[in-house]
Amino acid sequence: MKRISERDVVMIALFAALIAVLGLIPKLTLASGIPITAQTLGIMLCGTVLGAWRGAAAAALFCLLVLLGLPLLAGGRGGLGVLMTPWAGFFVGFPIAAFVTGLVMERLRAAPVAVGAAAGSVLGGIVALYVVALAWYMLVKPAGLGEAVTVAALPFIPGDLIKAVLAALVTQALARARPGALPSRG
């Protein structure tokens, strides 16, 4: 079993804080009531920079803090009540999305950093996250797949693609500025 280093603990806490800070950027609420936030960019960065297990741990730590009542979600939301909406699947999917993003990044070590980060961000930060979010939406609403995709996915895809590009660019810049600084590539 791999020993968790002090550096790992610091990085996990730092990226949980990054997700929280990205929640301070004012959210944009669509007519459907769904908020668009920058926090999914933080989830993507957890995976692209930290890798699968560290990224998932950072996202899980963030989720735990929110569920304990800290108002860290965009708009200052926190507590168990966040699980009661049809949109909570995005929140619940954060650790899974960070894990998949990091896993793709780790598997694409031979590819350029930006390519691995973009692929990871799309497959983890969008596809994996949406699988969880859409399933949650269909169960809680209740709704069929068509409504879930139309209401809970399509409005977000353009913004999430922009976030995936930003995650790739930030990850690439970090790798250039500090070679060896990406646990996801180590």
Structure report:
The protein has one domain (6-185): Arp2/3 complex 21 kDa subunit ARPC3, CATH 1.10.1760. Helix content is 65%, strand content 2%. It contains eight helices and two strands. The protein has a two-stranded antiparallel sheet with strand order 1-2. Strand 1 (28-29) and strand 2 (35-36) form a beta hairpin. The mean pLDDT is 92. GO terms for molecular function: biotin transmembrane transporter activity. It is found in: Cell membrane. This is Biotin transporter.
- Which of globular, elongated, flat, extended, rod-shaped describes the shape? globular
- The CATH architecture designation is Orthogonal Bundle
How confident is the prediction overall: mean pLDDT?
Answer: 92
How helical, in percent, are the residues?
55-70%
Q: What is the quaternary state of this protein?
A: single chain
Runs in which pLDDT lies below 50 for 5 or more consecutive residues are: none
Instruction: Let me know the largest β-sheet.
Output: 2 strands, antiparallel
In spatial order, strands of the major sheet run 1-2
Structural category is mainly alpha
Q: What gap, in angstroms, lies between the N and C termini?
A: 17 Å
SS strand fraction = under 5%
Count of domain modules: 1
> How many E strands?
2
CATH fold call? Arp2/3 complex 21 kDa subunit ARPC3
Count every helix, treating DSSP H or I runs of 4 or more residues as helices: 8
Membrane topology: Multi-pass membrane protein
Subcellular location: Cell membrane
Transmembrane segments: 55-75, 87-105, 111-137
Family: Belongs to the BioY family.
